[in-house]
Write a structure and sequence with these properties.
heterodimer; A: alpha/beta; Rossmann fold; B: alpha+beta; Alpha-Beta Plaits; 9 strands; Acetalactate_synth_ssu (chain B); acetolactate synthase regulator activity (chain B); Acetolactate synthase small subunit (chain B); acetolactate synthase activity (chain B); ACT-like_dom_sf (chain B)
Chain lengths: ~575, ~200
């Protein structure tokens, strides 16, 4: 550069001098969260995250911090929030035990592709590796269960690392991200120049480029199919592609079945929605997987609970697999035509090329299986003749009252399978459940988060007596912050799913599945939460009405029959066509 | 044919950012599946800030392909290639420490070293350090030969490998740096089957 130019430019440069303010790393973090649109934080303070909490004291108006009762509750709440809102959940925890308590939630979010940004405090940088008080190697503990993690030791890194974290968490196949910030970085003053969101990382390609050749090939295959069958998963929801998906289904006229995380991508009552896949899914979708000629898998990953025995899974069919994550293609089931890409982009291209059809005869086959399932299983579950209540009839009555408009959050076990099977979802993002990891204790905290994510919706947490006891301390969070969550405990006095397996496969050797519970009504009462217990059919509907109409949170304990089994069932190690009705 | 029989040596080449913790992120992709890493080399590549991993494992191609995709999925990984031994030129370096008097006194030893292409690195009164590079069998052979002559210490490096058909990484990196990379960045094995270099 020559000197003349330099002299001209100098005053200009001075006029443009960036205005920066000196702030602490903690303030920069909170400013960044606001810039990313964060409105709720679920967290729990502790020594190593105190500077951030100190800064938070002045941000009470802008950031709503919910003090949970355990960090695991905090992260599940973050997951519930992310799942019901489609936004990134934000969680705070301190170092050491605070951070290790996040691990279950991180693993759950990782396997269920839930976008989270978790901030953990860490000991001073100069103490790293000295076995300091509440020091754990959080980065290495969480590496297998995060999409990305990073340790910050210098406050100057905070804005760019946070921007990167949000970008990574929500783009591509979403997932949990953890930032570990040493205490000195939280306290350090630096020149903050504002927050710049991230939209490109050279080593990260969130969206594969769509190759039109494959769209054409896929359409050709679909158009030539006599018995095509769509399997859809959470990818449709994560891609916010519900409309594009419905358009594809309706034009192609192809029957579509869902994985439990895909529930709600199209309404339960849609004529082409033929039901749930997998171990406790519907009869038709499982059996007919082994009869279809072309499988179209959209945003799903062929979990072993969906496929049953893999070497006998859809061997006769050609597979079109749409997924954003290249690592999912061919992972479990070989694709004939892989369509890599965001289904929000690929589905419209495919819809354009597929023929408008009605697969009337093929669809009728699904209906036949549905009828057989109604006769053998569903009728007895929804309209039982015995004195005791069944889980299915409770969910059915709930459907009638909520008309499929509620968000149903479940825990893990029999009640989860029953709820997913029978709950009606008119809307997307209405089914919040721990799918891949099967985390008992997920339900209550996730329901709290789901309510913050969708404040205008009725949120009903359906939880078993076992799972509820794993995270019931979060009743305290409800008590203090007033999340309007309707808690429905389906109490069968057993760890029901394990008991079912012991009955069917271990000659009824009921090994440690007999679980006792406290008086849940009194428990709720001690948390100042309205509660009631119901065991008679005559009182069921009125109790549900009371729960749903109650202003504020409510706990309803429903005593259900002890030894009911969830059917249909694909026993482990069996093919989907060997599904049992009893 | 059993899977065991389909297993062979694969060299996985990974281009990455230079990031703390990434080694662990990549290593656990193998250990989680109980796969042993036979050899691992990590060092700066010809491009500033970009590191190159060479990982050698004994597995079936199907497993290696899946591993490659899992590795490439990591945020700081730019690119993964995998190759069989036919596709690459590779070397391992070995150092041998031998008593100097043995070499000085026995012409045979000196001849053996020369036959195996060993080069002297250091000569001291008490010991001499030789270096060779070659394939595993070659460096192994020299251990065998030197063992009766008082081999004091031996060390071998990990494998480093050049992919025969690779055109390097510079051009690719430029594509990665663009916000909307060109189509050749997003390779697809189905379409690229014809190409000589397999990429993920």
């Amino acid at each position: 550069m020559d000197t003349a130019q330099e002299t001209i430019q100098k005053p200009e440069a001075k006029a443009e001098t960036k205005t920066f303010v000196e702030v602490t790393g903690s303030v920069a973090l909170l400013e960044g969260l606001i810039a990313e649109g964060t409105d709720v934080i679920f967290g729990y303070p502790g020594g190593a995250i105190m500077p951030i909490y100190d800064a938070l004291y002045d941000y009470k108006e802008k950031l709503n911090h919910i003090l949970v009762r355990h960090e695991q509750g905090g992260i599940h709440a973050g997951q519930g929030y992310a799942r019901s809102s489609g936004k990134v959940g934000v969680v705070f925890a301190t170092s050491g035990p605070g951070a290790t308590n996040l691990v279950t939630g991180l693993a759950d979010a990782q396997i269920d592709s839930t976008p989270l940004v978790c901030i953990t405090g860490q000991v001073f940088a100069h103490l790293l590796g000295t076995d300091a008080f509440q020091e754990t190697d959080v980065i290495n503990i969480t590496t297998p269960v995060t999409k990305w993690n990073y340790q910050v030791t210098d406050a100057k890194e905070i804005p760019s690392v946070l921007a990167k974290a949000f970008y990574i968490a929500r783009t591509g196949r979403p997932g949990p991200v953890l930032i570990d910030i040493t205490k000195n970085a939280q306290m350090q003053l630096f020149n903050y120049e504002g927050y710049i969101p991230c939209n490109h990382i050279r080593s990260y390609r969130p969206k594969p480029i769509i190759r039109n050749e494959y769209i054409v090939e896929a359409a050709k295959l679909i158009n030539s199919a006599k018995k095509p069958f769509i399997l859809f998963g959470q990818g449709v929801l994560l891609g916010k592609a519900e409309e594009e998906f419905q358009a594809f289904v309706e034009k192609s006229g192809i029957p579509a079945a869902w994985t439990i995380l895909g529930a709600g991508a199209i309404p339960t009552d849609h004529e082409l929605n033929v039901g749930m896949l997998g171990m406790h899914g519907n009869y038709g979708p499982n059996v007919l997987t082994n009869e279809c000629d072309v499988l179209i898998a959209i945003g799903m990953r062929f979990d072993d609970r969906v496929t049953g025995r893999l070497d006998k899974y859809a061997k006769q069919a050609k597979l079109v697999h749409l997924d954003i994550d290249p690592a999912e293609i061919d992972k479990n089931v070989k694709a004939t035509v892989p369509v890599w890409g965001d289904c929000k982009d690929t589905l419209p291209l495919l819809t354009e090329l597929v023929d408008e059809k009605k697969h009337t005869e093929w669809l009728a086959k699904f209906r036949e299986y549905t009828k057989a399932e109604v006769d053998a299983v569903i009728e007895a579950e929804l309209n039982p003749t015995g004195d005791e209540l069944t889980m299915g009839e409770v969910i059915n009555q709930l459907n009638i009252l909520t008309k499929g408009e509620a968000i149903i959050v479940t825990d893990v076990g029999q009640h989860q399978m029953v709820a997913c099977r029978y709950a009606k979802f008119n809307n997307t993002r209405s089914n919040v459940t721990s799918g891949g990891l099967g985390t008992m204790g997920f339900g209550l905290p996730a329901a709290i988060g789901a309510k913050y994510g969708a404040p205008d919706k009725t949120v009903v947490a359906v939880i078993g007596d076992g799972g509820f006891q794993m995270t019931l301390q979060e009743l305290g969070t409800i008590m203090q912050f007033g999340a309007d969550v309707k808690i429905m405990i389906l109490n069968n006095r057993f760890l029901g799913m394990v008991r079912q397996w012991q009955e069917l496969f271990n000659e009824k050797r009921y090994s440690f599945v007999d679980i006792t519970s406290p008086d849940f009504v009194k428990l709720a009462d001690s948390y100042y939460i309205a509660a009631k217990r119901v065991s008679d059919r005559d009182d069921l509907v009125s109790s549900l009405v009371e729960m749903l109409n109650y202003k504020g949170s409510y706990l309803l304990e429903v005593m259900v029959t002890k030894e009911n089994n969830v059917f249909p069932m694909v026993p482990q190690g069996c093919s989907v066509s060997e599904i049992r009705l009893k | 044919m059993s899977t065991e029989n389909n297993k062979q040596e694969f060299t996985i080449t990974v281009y990455t950012e230079n990031q703390i913790g990434l080694l662990n992120r990549i290593a656990i992709i193998f250990s989680r599946r109980k796969i042993n890493i036979e050899s691992l080399n990590v060092s700066p590549s010809e491009i500033e800030h970009i590191h190159r991993f060479n990982i050698v494992i004994h597995e079936t191609e199907d497993v290696v392909r899946k591993l490659g995709r899992q590795i490439e999925k990591q945020i700081e990984v730019l690119k993964v290639y995998y190759n069989t031994n036919e596709d690459i030129i590779w070397q391992e370096m070995a150092l041998y420490k031998v008593p100097t008097e043995e070499i000085a006194e026995k012409v045979l030893v000196e001849r053996l070293l020369r036959e195996h292409g060993a080069r002297v690195v250091v000569i001291r009164k008490d010991y001499t350090v030789f270096e060779t590079t070659g394939h595993r069998e070659e460096t192994d052979k020299l251990i065998e030969v030197l063992q009766p002559h008082g081999l004091i210490e031996f060390v071998r490096s990990a494998r480093v490998a050049i992919i025969k058909d690779s055109e390097g990484f510079n051009a690719k990196l430029r594509e990665f740096e663009r916000e909307e990379p060109g189509q050749d960045v997003i390779e697809n094995e189905y379409l690229d089957k014809g190409q000589k270099v397999f990429t993920m």
